[in-house]
């Protein structure tokens, strides 16, 4: 189960490096391409270990007829970032026309944008859209070092004093409680970054007594706790055992093995792909933002699209009780 996708052939026409470990790739896309809102994403057909796969990336503002992405070369990558870093001008692939599940509401009196690391990509499109629309906006942006803050110069030029940078090597980190406490009552905050930042933002937003409908976030599915390694999934109801390779998600492995699954966002947000955990010998690495911290600690359900059980075996119930495949 997924949203309707329209695939287009795409050719690499430009490569740039906003930072040493971030690569921006611009594609010319065949056929008419409608304007897209900030926060939109595209799916890209990639090759990982000579096998086809699909990865999802935010699309950045770019010229008409083009789609631009920025990808960090991540040490825990399942192969997508390495593939993007292997591209050269003239290389051809396929991409979907953009869709948006992280759109601006345009209903608030003030917007607080929060970006952590490469989570800046959707926020980078939101900031100029809000400024050009005459909206009140502040942005806080954090990273490990000044050199790793992609698009910092462009954002400083655009936002001036309404941008504040927080760099770990300088001992500076977000004070989310203080940030949220001084927002107007009808303000909204948009957050993208590591799962730790998203969970901290949700907790601070709740402590501030603010409605959750006014906190929007997007996930890129890495907890940072583990490197990627293979694991095995047993489905007793289907009498199947499926290997999940380091370069694929549990959801991908189950689908490729013929296991029926319900899913949608593939980012750990909607919960549709959640499976019941019957038993596990490995520590479950929960990477979703759908379940509460209490629910994740109970280890009775996990989101198949992002969460993992590195190096071990887990037994699950997918919810389907049909005859064995």
Automatic annotation (TrEMBL):
Domain 2Fe-2S ferredoxin-type: 233-322
InterPro entries, sorted: 2Fe-2S_ferredoxin-like_sf (IPR036010), 2Fe-2S_ferredoxin-type (IPR001041), 2Fe2S_fd_BS (IPR006058), Beta-grasp_dom_sf (IPR012675), Cbr1-like_FAD-bd_dom (IPR008333), FAD-bd_FR_type (IPR017927), FNR_nucleotide-bd (IPR039261), MRET (IPR050415)
Protein keywords: Membrane, Oxidoreductase, Transmembrane, Transmembrane helix
Xref: Gene3D superfamilies: 3.10.20.30, Nucleotide-binding domain of ferredoxin-NADP reductase (FNR) module (3.40.50.80), Translation factors (2.40.30.10)
GO molecular function, one term: oxidoreductase activity
Alphabetical list of Pfam families matching this protein: FAD_binding_6 (PF00970), Fer2 (PF00111), NAD_binding_1 (PF00175)
Membrane spanning residue stretches: 111-131
PANTHER family: BLR2392 PROTEIN, NADH OXIDOREDUCTASE HCR
Protein's UniProt name: PDR/VanB family oxidoreductase
Gene source species: Rhizobium brockwellii
Biological classification of the source: Bacteria, Pseudomonadati, Pseudomonadota, Alphaproteobacteria, Hyphomicrobiales
């Amino acid at each position: 189960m997924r949203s309707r996708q329209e695939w287009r052939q795409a050719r690499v026409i430009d490569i740039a490096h906003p930072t040493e470990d971030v690569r921006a790739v611009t594609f010319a896309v065949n056929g008419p391409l409608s304007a897209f809102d900030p926060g939109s994403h595209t799916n890209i057909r990639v090759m990982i270990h000579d096998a086809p796969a699909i990865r999802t990336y935010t699309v950045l503002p770019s010229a008409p007829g083009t789609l631009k992405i920025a990808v960090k070369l991540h040490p825990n990558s399942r192969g997508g970032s390495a593939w993007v870093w292997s591209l050269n001008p003239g290389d051809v692939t396929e991409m979907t026309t953009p869709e948006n599940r992280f759109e601006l509401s345009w209903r608030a009196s003030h917007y607080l944008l929060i970006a952590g690391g490469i989570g800046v990509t959707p926020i980078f499109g939101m900031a100029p859209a809000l400024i050009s629309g005459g909206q009140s906006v502040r942005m806080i942006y954090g990273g490990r070092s000044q050199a790793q803050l992609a698009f910092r110069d462009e954002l400083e030029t655009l936002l001036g004093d309404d941008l504040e940078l927080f760099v770990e090597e300088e001992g500076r980190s977000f004070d989310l409680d203080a940030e949220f406490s001084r927002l107007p009552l009808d303000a909204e905050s948009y957050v993208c970054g590591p799962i730790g930042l998203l969970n901290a933002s949700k907790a601070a937003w709740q402590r501030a007594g603010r409605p959750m409908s006014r906190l929007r976030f997007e996930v890129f599915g890495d907890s940072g706790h583990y490197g990627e390694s293979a694991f095995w999934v047993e489905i007793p109801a289907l009498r199947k055992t499926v290997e999940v390779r380091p370069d694929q998600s549990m959801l991908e492995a189950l689908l490729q093995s013929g296991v029926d699954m319900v899913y949608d966002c593939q980012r750990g947000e909607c919960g549709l792909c959640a499976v019941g955990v019957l038993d596990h010998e490995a520590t479950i690495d929960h990477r979703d933002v759908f379940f509460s911290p209490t629910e994740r600690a109970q280890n009775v359900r996990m989101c198949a699209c992002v969460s993992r059980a590195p190096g071990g075996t887990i037994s699950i119930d997918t919810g389907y009780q049909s005859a064995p495949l």
